[in-house]
Structures are given as C-alpha cells and as structure tokens.
TrEMBL record:
This is Corrinoid adenosyltransferase. It catalyses: 2 cob(II)yrinate a,c diamide + reduced [electron-transfer flavoprotein] + 2 ATP = 2 adenosylcob(III)yrinate a,c-diamide + 2 triphosphate + oxidized [electron-transfer flavoprotein] + 3 H(+); 2 cob(II)alamin + reduced [electron-transfer flavoprotein] + 2 ATP = 2 adenosylcob(III)alamin + 2 triphosphate + oxidized [electron-transfer flavoprotein] + 3 H(+). GO terms for molecular function: corrinoid adenosyltransferase activity. InterPro entries: CblAdoTrfase-like, CblAdoTrfase-like_sf, PduO-typ. Pathway: Cofactor biosynthesis; adenosylcobalamin biosynthesis; adenosylcobalamin from cob(II)yrinate a,c-diamide: step 2/7. It comes from Metabacillus halosaccharovorans. Keywords: ATP-binding, Cobalamin biosynthesis, Nucleotide-binding, Transferase.
Amino acid sequence: MNLYTRTGDSGKTSIIGGRVDKDHLRVEAYGTIDEANSFIGQAMTLLTDPIFQDIYQELEKIQHELFDCGGDLAVVKEKYPYKAKEEMVTFLEERIDHYVKEAPPLEKFILPGGSNAAAVIHIARTVTRRAERCTVSLQKEMDINGEVLKYLNRLSDYLFAVARVINFRLGVKDVEYERSALVFKTNPKDKQ
C-alpha cells in the first residue's frame, strides 16, 4: 500500500461522496478533530500509572468516537449512515458529573497546566473548542450530523474536568487565575 497517491497535489482531497478543496470547511473541521485526537493520544502516553486506568480507557474510547465524528463531517451524500449518536454525548455528561465530584470545588478560572498530562489534556481541550467552532461554521453552510457538534461541545467540558482530576490525583494544585472573580458557584450537594 502506498501512503502517497498524488491525487492531492493540486489542492483537492477526497471525502465520502466527492472531492473538495483542502481548505474546505469540511476538511478544516474534521482536520481539527484529528488534531485534538492526536493531543489526546499524546496525553495517554503520560497516563500509564494504574491510578489513571479509568481515564486512559475513556480516552481510548473517545479517540474512536472522534474518528466517527470526523467521518460524519466528511460525508456529503446522505446514503451513508452517521456514526455519532446521542449515547456518546450522554456518556461524556455522566463522566463529567463523576469527575466534578472527585476534584476539589472550583470557584475561579484556572490556568491551563499543572502536570504534564493535564497540560496536554488542556491543549486537546482548546483544540476541541476550535474544532467545535469550525463545525459551527460548516453547519451554517450545509447539513451535518448535529450530534457531532453536541459531542465536541461536551468533550471540551469533559477534558477540562479530566485535566483537573489528573492534577488532583497527582497532588498538583490547579493555579487559579489571579485576577479572576468568583465565577463558579459551588453546590453543596456536589460533594455528596
């Protein structure tokens, strides 16, 4: 199998059901999803300690789901069934709720960073936000699987929660943004 085909040398690429310019909104959206996926993969190389087994397994699941999302955005003909489903979003919401309870209460904005793994997760989070913005732009131009947009929105929240838990499990404190007002209200029931 050749990794190069020369078919993209003129600035066009194949998507499911056609060809588009390499700077097309579709390509930008699923390419940015791929970038986020790569940072998640990098973070996973830093999460080999058994205390992160749950997070590692979830991130691997998420990597597959990001491929599903990218594939859905690459579909231009309706005959191909979408892969991103509501259950994927629900799973992320359940895990976010779990991790919010595990990490210390949050009252102020925090700086991205802490441990190496958390810092890479924060990079994946911000790239996911960019993928979400690209997907919003794409949605303005053509019909897409709306579950992809929901998934990206929830995934960035999940990654934020996971970055905080990684730091917490390692005993690394989040650094609060020093000029932040109190922006998060702590619900006393959250720690129950």
